[in-house]
Write a structure and sequence with these properties.
By secondary structure, the chain is α/β, with parallel strands linked by helices. An 8-stranded parallel sheet has the order 1-2-3-4-5-6-7-8. A two-stranded antiparallel sheet has the order 9-10. Strand 6, helix 7 and strand 7 form a beta-alpha-beta unit. Helix 9 packs across helix 10. Bound molecules: zinc ion. Zinc ion binds next to loops.
């Protein structure tokens, strides 16, 4: 039997002991799971580019997360220009009101987000978007740009957001929350399978039913199994569909 084709569409592979130990790396290679490792600032963008030279199971995205809206943008532009063809997308980028206690900080996040979208548009690259507490604003801004492959990671939108996602052919990804949240299961019900990817955003500590387990790509088969149950399709059909969605999104075959 051939191995499953699975890609973690949004994870943070750099700078942590959990992902860098040899047991994890070897298990990942053995299981045939691939990962898209997004960045949050200049340092992690460089780290991801360097890790991709070492490991062929990962591809790097570079970008500045809204939490780091104060990051040096000139340095980011240097990373962009010096490492052409060594990254495959822009992310993790977006907006997040949780990090803003003033309107001016939110305005700075928006300025940064627009810059990141401009880079992606110019270089025809996919984007990986963070939209906690700001999804409506994020969708409005993204629609202004001519970017073909847009992923709303950890999607948690309402009916109106879902309509816009479908109308614009944007992708959404779901992670371990799908294993315990009835609300997210309802959301998945309203989104066609051809727009769905899977992710873990790892390593993240899930205190819920996981009892402090760190999320890792090895949770992905369970997430896909849950999706297949919701969509009333076989596990293998859903697994292959999500794999081909992800290849299309990133415009790269592993
Ligand atoms: Zn993330």
């Amino acid at each position: 039997m051939s191995p499953l084709n699975i890609i973690d569409s949004h994870t943070h592979f750099y700078g942590n002991d959990f992902y860098s130990n040899s047991y994890f790396i070897n298990s990942l290679k053995f299981s045939n799971i691939k990962i898209i490792s997004v960045s949050t600032n200049n340092q992690s963008s460089l780290d991801n580019i360097n890790l991709a030279k070492k490991y062929d199971f990962m591809i790097p995205f570079i970008g500045i997360h809204p939490q780091f809206y104060y990051e040096n943008i000139e340095n980011f532009e240097l990373i962009l220009s010096k490492n052409k063809k060594q990254f495959y997308g822009i992310g993790e980028i977006g907006l997040d009101r949780s990090y803003c206690d003033t309107l001016s900080k939110y305005t700075s996040q928006k300025q940064l987000f627009r810059k990141m979208l401009e880079y992606a548009e110019k270089q025809c690259l996919p984007v990986s978007i963070h939209s906690r507490n700001s999804l409506s604003d994020v969708i409005e801004i993204v629609k202004e740009y001519d970017i073909k492959n847009v992923l709303f990671h950890w999607f948690d939108g309402d009916v109106n957001h879902i309509k816009q996602i479908i109308d614009n052919n944007y992708y959404v990804s779901f992670g371990p929350v799908l294993l315990y949240s009835k609300r997210i299961i309802k959301t998945v019900n309203h989104i066609p399978l051809n727009l769905i990817l899977v992710e873990t955003d790892g390593p993240l500590n899930y205190s819920n039913c996981f009892k402090s387990v760190l999320s890792s790509p090895f949770l992905l088969p369970s997430i896909i199994f849950r999706l297949s149950y919701i969509k009333h399709k076989s596990f293998h059909i859903v697994c292959e569909k999500i794999f081909s969605n992800t290849i299309k999104y990133v415009n790269h075959s592993f």
